[in-house]
Amino acid sequence: MTIKVVRGNPTPEELAAALAVVRARAAAAAATPSGAEGPRDAWSDPARIASARVPSPGQASWSRTYWPG
Question: Which pTM does this prediction carry?
Fold first, then answer.
C-alpha cells in the first residue's frame, strides 16, 4: 500500500496517526466476512419514515405526513 501526501506538510506524528487509522480500518474490513453487514442502525431503516397509515386528504394533510396522530 502506498500513501502519498498531496497537500500540506504533516508532522511525523500526524502522518503516523493517519496511517494508524487507515491500517485499523483495513484490518477491520479484512476481519469482516464479505457480504456480511453489521447490525442495521434504526436511523438508516426506511421503515422508520414510512408511517403505518397514510393521512387523509384535507387542509393540513401535508403537515401530518411525518407526524403521527
Answer: 0.44
